[in-house]
Amino acid sequence: MPESNSAFSRVEFLVSAGITGGLPPEDLPELAFAGRSNVGKSSAINALTRRKRLAFVSKTPGRTQTINFFDLGGKGRLVDLPGYGYARVPQAVRAEWDQLVGGYMSTRESLAGVVMLMDARRPFTPHDENLLAWLRPAGKRLLVLLSKSDKLSRQERTKLLQACQARLASRAFDAEVRLFSSLSGEGVEETRALLDSWIQAARAENKKPPEKGN
After folding, report:
1. pLDDT digits (tens, 9 = 90+) for 28-52
2. How many angstroms separate the CA atoms of 30 and 89, rounded?
3. What CA–CA distance (Å, rounded) separates 58 from 41?
4. Which of 70, 78, 117, 164 could pair covalently with 35 via S-S, beta carbons 3.0-4.6 A apart?
5. Contact assessment for residue 16 and residue 69, using Cβ atoms and an 8 Å cutoff
6. Mean pLDDT of 11-40
7. Which CATH superfamily is domain 3-206 in?
8. In what side-by-side order are the strands of the sheet with 30-35?
9. CA angle 207-209-210, nearest 5°?
């Protein structure tokens, strides 16, 4: 896709929303990024948008406790969900995360797809499994990015990709799986193109006329 037509060619911070509300209207397709704390989610967002500090890369896992929305040139929105699974976060904060993110995932009609990041060296942690359990009934498009793939050898990456694809397929997940590294650039262009196609498909679906009788 030509750069000028990509939803990622123009991106701006829109708003941060907390547990009390403040979410933007559900008038554009949204792509939500989710992942364990310190998995490389912010770095992935920065790489995909070609921005160095669009999403803040914190050295303190568990820091972000709001949902951050970014406008994609009026074509859609990128949604940065707070990271999960950091042991030092108090129980009350973890409960707030469940309410905030769980509520968004289960009720947001404009959610067109979820990008879930897993550390390529430690995929399918118990917290990852919990998120997958949340996503199953939602039936949304799902892309699993195996982040920090540059830490593995070529042979290890190939085996990992095949194993993750088989594991998701065995559980009836219709999911895309990609190796991804914000440092080496592996998977960045392919991921951007896929997410562009998701936004286009969601926009086309929203333009369909209502069925007769509705």
Report:
1. 999 999 998 889 898 999 999 998 7
2. 27
3. 10
4. 117
5. yes
6. 87
7. P-loop containing nucleotide triphosphate hydrolases (3.40.50.300)
8. 12-17, 67-71, 77-80, 30-35, 111-119, 141-147, 175-179
9. 125
